[in-house]
Amino acid sequence: MKMLTQRYVEDVAVGTALGPIEFGPVTTRHLVQWAAAANDFYEIHYDKAYALAQGLPDVVVHGPLKLALMGRLLMGWVGPQGWIRRLTCRYLGFDVPGTVLRCTGTVTAVRPESGEVDVELELTNSDGARTAAGTATVRLPRRGQGGRAPVPGDDSDAP
């Protein structure tokens, strides 16, 4: 098992790159497993004939699976003492079985006093198409702070 490296707010600057992480190639089995885990049995995710009848190119990847990949990238990046404070995702296109999903991010703002870092996220597929985009705010600990970054919503350490 790979140990996560702790990242500190002092070590981050605007423009810092996150990732990439990759998932795939996506299979129909992955989609059925996700459907079961998420209790999302909409036929466009596992029934090819139904998906084609709806005008789709094939069965399609669940949008929340893309969001989960963004969360996975962030959790691996912040380390065991960091937090995801906010995460949003816009679905921009369909992904189908056989594709590899690639998630990356870029730091857009750093607030050392609170430990908060803003990140823009992007998910692309094997064809290079951008099929999801997101934003996040994470909270990182400061060096010498002793333990976890302050819990989201706990601003008792704010100046």
TrEMBL record:
Domain MaoC-like: 25-121
Cross-referenced SUPFAM superfamilies: Thioesterase/thiol ester dehydrase-isomerase
Family annotation (InterPro entries): HotDog_dom_sf (IPR029069), MaoC-like_dom (IPR002539)
Protein name: MaoC-like domain-containing protein
Segments of this protein annotated with the region Disordered: 130-159
Pfam families the record matches: MaoC_dehydratas
